[in-house]
Amino acid sequence: MFGSDKPSLRHLPENQARFDIDDDDELSRRPAQSEVHAALVRTFESPQYQPPMLPKVATELISLSAVRDVDVQQVVQVLERDSLLAGRVLKLANSPRFGGLVPIQSLRGAITRMGLREFRDLVLEAAMNSRIFRAPGYSDALDKLRMHAAATAHAARAVTRFTSFEAEYAFLCGLLHEAGSAAALVALADVPRGQTLRPMNDVWPVIEELHESLGQRLMTLWQMPAEVAMVIGNHHQLEIGGVVHPLAAIVLVAEHIVDGLGLGGPTALVPTGTDTLRKAQQLQKARAALGFDDARWRAVYKTVADALVGQKNDAAMK
Predict the structure, then answer these.
(1) pTM over 0.70
(2) Which of 68, 234, 240, 278 is least enclosed by beta carbons within 10 angstroms?
(3) CA distances from 288 to 215, 249, 284, 285 (A)
(4) Which of 74-78, 120-124, 219-223, 270-274 has the least mean pLDDT?
């Protein structure tokens, strides 16, 4: 929760809002939604905004993974500084999806088996599963977003195998593409004691409108690679500098498949009247950019869906 020494939704000056506002969106909002929009803009644009933060070792590992010929022991030593996170990573590394016949006993063993890039992704997944985002009153929505983000991350990695693009950050972008939505819920839960939270029917349409911009702001504050921040800020728009970014296309395609499987996320929260025609057009644009004709698209969809069946079954059992 925001303390008295940092900005919250209840005491930021109006003149700190600097997000671009679409006139059509502004006219279509109900008064309650306009209040939510203004509050989120003020909070995220404030120089004093302090977001929920990733564990420090996770951001260090992202930087280390970009270093050519990095020493594995150096990676291990960084993660060992956070014993709780290290334990979560080992637990994930021994999950059935990695299919190892011999249990992984050490962090070095995990890196050797899966490689540094996949190990980095696993650390981020473990960090996000540690409930960085906490918002009493919106916990159910955050749980759905967390499940949706994890599924989209694994889907994005699977989609990448069908492309000719070297998408180093596909998993990370899938994992973090709804981080702006989660951070917005955390901010909106920061209300004075006894005050009722805004209902999701007022909150979610505004978050849908702003989550790309909010996510890009959060990635910058988390010191994520510039490409990750750019894609998070444009994963529905697709185009960056007038050209479809292949990584944004991969995330959009992955999210479409995950939504179709009912794995949490926006479609599991509240109806928002999303423009289905525009979504279909963006999907076609993403498929074209990735070279997915109908036959290849069917293969992609089946492969990703099959890969996520276990995750869907696990979610149903919880």
Answers:
(1) yes
(2) 68
(3) 26, 9, 6, 5
(4) 270-274
